[in-house]
Amino acid sequence: MAKNSALIEPRLPRGFVDSEPADLAAVEEMVAKIRHVYERYGFDPLQTPFLEYTETLGKFLPDTDRPNAGVFSMQDDDEQWLSLRYDLTAPLARYFAQNYQDLPKPFRSYRQGWVFRNEKPGPGRFRQFMQFDADTVGAAGPEADAEICMMMADTMDALGLAGKYVVRVNNRKVLDGVLQAIGVADEGQKLTVLRAIDKLDKFGPEGVRLLLGEGRKDESGDFTAGAGLDPAQIAAVIDYVGGKVPSGNEGIAELDAMAALFASAGYGEDRIRIDPSVVRGLEYYTGPVFEIELTFTVQNEKGQDVLFGSVGGGGRYDGLVSRFRNEETPATGFSIGVSRLASALKLTGNLSSRPATGPVVVTVMEKDRIADYQKMVAELRAAGIRAELFLGSSKNMGKQMKYADKRNAPAVIIQGSDEREAGIVQIKDLAEGAEAAASITDNAAWKAERPGQYSVPRGDMVDFVRQIPAVAAWMEVNARP
Q1: pLDDT at residue 443, as a whole number
Q2: Mean pLDDT of the chain
Q3: For residue 435, what are the domain limits?
Q4: In this predicted model, what pLDDT tens digit does every residue of 403-450 receive, in sequence order?
Q5: Which residues are annotated as a binding site?
Q6: Rounded distance, CA 226 to CA 212, Å?
Q7: Kindly report the CA angle at 278 between 275 and 279, in degrees rounded to 5?
Q8: Residues 217 and 290 both lie in one domain
Q9: Is the overall model pTM greater than 0.90, yes or no?
Q10: Which residues are annotated as a binding site for L-histidine?
Q11: Edge-to-edge strand order for the sheet containing 51-53?
């Protein structure tokens, strides 16, 4: 490239984040525990592509005034519109309908993957984020919904959050009955009411009153239009979310059946409870809806203590698959927000934030002996040990050691001409060396003692490295079949 060529500024697109090794290792640790619970319940993995035909995603986005505006879309070479998936549920509905004849009914699956939303990014709000879903398609009874809720509770327990969460359950049929009783029939107005109730935890009863009425202006001056209900209608909705639930509703019967199942399986109200204020925002929910709420407090941007809040939720969506098939197909499921849940686990100390263990680094003291060093690396790898050869240009040992530190290497292998002639290698346990060095204040003493460094016969190199605690721990977690 010519010297006067304009350089491209390295910029991360707005609303997207890079994931570094420590973050990826922590998330993998978390999803492995989630996956274990799902599979214990009999759910099998499924993976769908990032792209779907735009019509597959449908008009089930939060803002129904501009359907499909919240997705990233493009045209392929035959002018068909494709979109990055907005969630993992619409692709599941497409997959089930497309493979209907070959799948067991009910069909249980779980999916983990990235989803994309073409929305304005903000603090904690990204355009790409990971979800972890589990769904049962083809089961109509409340026992399927109850099982999903119990699996949500067991998942939180497996992640170390026992006593710090509650699964809250409601039924959209109950609220639909309330809206029908007060004369709200317009679908757009219904959806605005649902969104208002969904903000109860964030804005409180008075904020919900404003959103049910003329609207609400936030602290920045932005105005959110309300549902336009009259005072009597608003009072009826507020009574409902406060616990005054009408009797004789089909949704009440379903909630009673679910509550009985929770009780019989030993899930008390400290883990799963019926809560009339739960309203999932998407319009395709047709029955029971549920959320996982973490009940410990954190500080918001104003320094106030607030509940951490929801990390996932879902519900029954019996109409989604019928977009592809003539008959109605019952379905229920839930989705976990992986990044938000990971943040919660870090706050509670249930998710490691330490860097992932790096490879054992074989240093290069003599360039003309590179084949010997490569042989050492090959022996370590053959034994199941993560290892790499230093490929930088410097022969300076200090720089190679700094490289090993940045790689979070558990150990380094050193062999110069003296060691080679003596038939040995120097092995430095970096964790032990760092711990010992912390108690040595004299630099000369540190050099003389060389903490954590051992002279080992060349033939014993692999066995010695395998016994280094950090290496042994990595091998245990990543044991080869």
Answers
A1: 52
A2: 87
A3: 360-477
A4: 999 999 999 999 999 999 999 999 999 988 665 544 545 554 445 456
A5: 87-89, 117, 131, 135, 280, 284-285
A6: 5
A7: 150
A8: yes
A9: no
A10: 87-89, 117, 131, 135, 280, 284-285
A11: 51-53, 81-84, 73-75
